[in-house]
Inverse folding.
């Protein structure tokens, strides 16, 4: 497992990620999606486990679930559990906001 740091401060990271927008970030040789709900950050695999739609185009709902843009399956971002749909769970990664930036372990 490797840990990456985004930004140089918590404030900078919050400014980089407007609330509930999903962005794709490059961490080493891997691209992952990152989003936040308030000060809770989430990192998760970029491609939907169902048919590989890019979840960057998805939406975050008020239950901290990401909704896939293609067939609207829903995945809980704390656990990755599929909540609506029939496929494996989403891979999620530890994302923690600290004063020095956002730490993501993949
Ligand atoms: S590709 Fe995501 S729900 Fe089908």
């Amino acid at each position: 497992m490797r840990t990456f740091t985004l930004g140089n401060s918590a404030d900078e990271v919050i400014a980089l990620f407007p609330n509930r927008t999903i962005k794709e970030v490059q961490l080493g040789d891997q691209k992952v999606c990152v989003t936040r709900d308030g000060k809770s950050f989430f990192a998760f695999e970029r491609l939907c486990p169902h048919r590989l739609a890019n979840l960057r185009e998805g939406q975050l709902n008020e239950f901290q679930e990401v909704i896939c843009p293609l067939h609207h399956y829903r995945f809980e971002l704390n656990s990755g559990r599929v909540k609506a749909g029939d496929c494996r769970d989403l891979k999620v990664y530890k994302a923690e906001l600290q004063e020095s930036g956002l730490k993501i372990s993949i």
Q: What stands out?
A: The beta strands are 3-6, 23-27, 30-37, 40-45, 59-60, 65-67, 74-76, 82-84, 92-98, 101-105.
